[in-house]
Specification:
4-stranded antiparallel β-sheet; 12 strands; about 550 residues; alpha/beta; TIM Barrel; about 40% helix; about 10% strand
């Protein structure tokens, strides 16, 4: 606990948002394992190649201890990392073609040809459909070459398949079947495949063996590249904060392969789905649509699926943020036939028993705290706080939320923080600080102009800054607070406006596509952040 939650600072940016790389830029020390210049061109999104290594060096220079990311699974509906078709797999779109060139599975001209089709518009926002076509084409080329170009990988690949046999086969077959059925949801497949009849499963696996082998290769490469990146981060004293969404996508290998663990009917359709009730921000609530868990079934299985899920996440990350933590104490259940969240009811979650079993399953020592950050935002009851505190999980405090009522008693204001919390200027679901301050509507259209004006005036008075410096003043405010960890989205460090927002909850268009503009993460900015971090005793150096 002392090591994980010692006083430190970090930055939040998802891998896909990493800055575009200028074409033709050579940097001999771009990453470990290189012995010459490497092309740092761009295919339309950040990945876990040279750009990620460069970002880690930026964090190191700035004295940052943490890099927080969003979920790294394959993206699903709306390209959201929170609606993934797998809770265990890695996202193929994060694999670095530059590293595959280094490893001899791609030629430099292969990468150059793919980059020649990237437009300036592609560098400014992630176009997932175009991006997937480019990257998957290169991965298929690497897959065809692997047996002859890297036969030495065969043993490692076999070991990877063996270590991940509890999920990998189902994921590969699910992915292959999805492609064969033109991406239709699994409950629209043949009935015998929906219900996983053993004979049908064998037949489909034989029929789609090549596609399954390709997906297995993709997951092996992702795991190999990710572990190399994590080792490099560790060598710089930087840990990675990952993210576990509490719920999983209905159209996922998880639900298809473990139907008994979810609230489904005999045809595989959900009977109860997740969401949150109406509140100040949404008169209809939010109907997320994820199938809910049959917690009694999970309990009978000693939470085996969840233990494996945590273990996989901790293979790739040092700390895990649990999204919608309150759902483990109680969760909002909506009948699947309802189109919104106005009608629903609260049901008890697995509570203390769940985290006790997770700790035991991960072989935690008595008194050892799970490496978990509890996302405890929104309507939080005393019971949720008691569950969080019983296991020593730090909660989250969002400075941007602290000014809403223009009163000093807000728990999101730094003078009210406890030391065992993680403080943020904002999250991936918020507007940027600059965008929030400039907005005349804020997060809710129900606020009056007088409320908006009082909120802004209170923020400027509290932070003792001019409006044009509010982003830096917010960072300084949480950096000097008693919170054990202080983290800002990279957009706030850069002072970017609403155009840089990553996600707007309740909407499905335009989210997750933001990319950091090239050239903004300068040495001067790293030095400013490093001095601030050292001043307030958060430096990792």
């Amino acid at each position: 606990m002392e090591t994980l939650f010692r006083r430190a600072a970090g930055q939040l940016i998802h891998v896909t948002s990493l800055a575009p790389r200028p074409r033709g830029l050579a940097q001999p020390d771009a990453m470990p394992g290189t012995d010459g210049p490497w092309s740092l061109g761009d295919l339309g999104s950040g990945d876990i190649g040279p750009g990620a290594y460069e970002f880690l060096r930026f964090l190191h220079r700035a004295g940052q201890r943490w890099w927080q990311i969003l979920p790294t699974g394959p993206v699903g509906y709306g390209y959201s990392p929170y609606q993934s078709p797998s809770s265990f797999a890695g996202n193929p779109l994060l694999i670095s073609p530059a590293l595959l060139v280094r490893d001899g599975l791609l030629k430099q001209e292969d990468l150059d040809d793919a980059m020649s089709r990237v437009t300036q518009e592609d560098l400014e926002r992630v176009d997932f459909s175009k991006l997937a076509a480019r990257r998957m084409e290169l991965l298929r080329l690497a897959f065809r070459r692997q047996p002859t170009h890297r036969p030495d990988w065969a043993q490692d690949s076999d070991a990877f398949r063996h270590r991940n046999r509890d999920w990998l086969g189902d994921h590969c077959l699910f992915t292959a079947c999805k492609a064969h059925h033109q991406d239709r949801a699994w409950h629209e497949w043949e009935p015998e495949l929906q219900r996983r009849d053993p004979q049908a499963m064998d037949a489909w696996h034989r029929k789609l063996q090549g596609a399954c082998d390709f997906e297995s290769f993709v997951q092996f490469v992702f795991d190999r590249q990710w572990n190399e990146l994590r080792q490099y981060a560790s060598s710089l004293g930087i840990g990675i904060i990952g993210d576990i969404p509490i719920f999983v996508s209905m159209d996922s290998a998880d639900v298809w392969s473990q139907q008994h663990l979810f609230e489904l009917d005999d045809q595989g359709h959900p009977t109860l789905v997740a969401g949150v009730p109406p509140d100040y921000f949404s008169e209809n609530g939010q109907r997320w649509g994820n199938p809910l868990y049959r917690w009694e079934q999970h309990q009978q299985n000693a939470y085996d699926w969840w233990i494996r899920r945590f273990r996989k996440s901790l293979d790739w990350c040092d700390l895990i943020r649990i999204d919608h933590f309150r759902g483990f104490e109680s969760y909002y259940a909506i009948a699947a036939e309802y189109s919104d969240a106005k009608i629903g009811h609260w049901k008890p979650g697995p509570g203390h028993d769940f985290f006790h079993k997770i700790s035991q399953g991960l072989n935690q020592h008595p008194g050892e705290v799970l490496p978990v950050i509890a996302e405890d935002l929104g309507f939080i009851t005393p019971e949720v706080r008691q569950l969080r505190d019983a296991f020593g999980f730090p909660g989250m405090r969002i400075l941007q939320f602290g000014f809403g009522d223009a009163v000093a008693s807000s728990l999101d204001l730094p003078h009210n923080y406890l030391s065992h919390c993680v403080a943020y200027t904002g999250t991936h679901d918020n507007d940027t600080v600059v965008g929030w301050y400039a907005s005349q509507a804020g997060e809710s259209s129900t606020r009056t102009q007088d409320q908006i004006d009082r909120e802004k005036a209170f923020a400027i008075r509290y932070l003792d800054c001019s409006p044009d410096q509010i982003h830096r003043a917010m960072i300084r405010s949480i950096w000097r607070s008693v919170a054990c960890l202080a983290i800002s989205p990279i957009q706030d460090l850069l002072g970017l406006d609403t155009k840089a927002r990553m996600n707007t909850p309740g909407t499905t268009v335009g989210n997750w596509t933001w990319r950091c503009p090239s050239g903004l993460l300068t040495e001067e900015l790293a030095d400013w952040l490093g001095e601030l971090t050292e001043t307030y005793g958060r430096s990792a150096l």
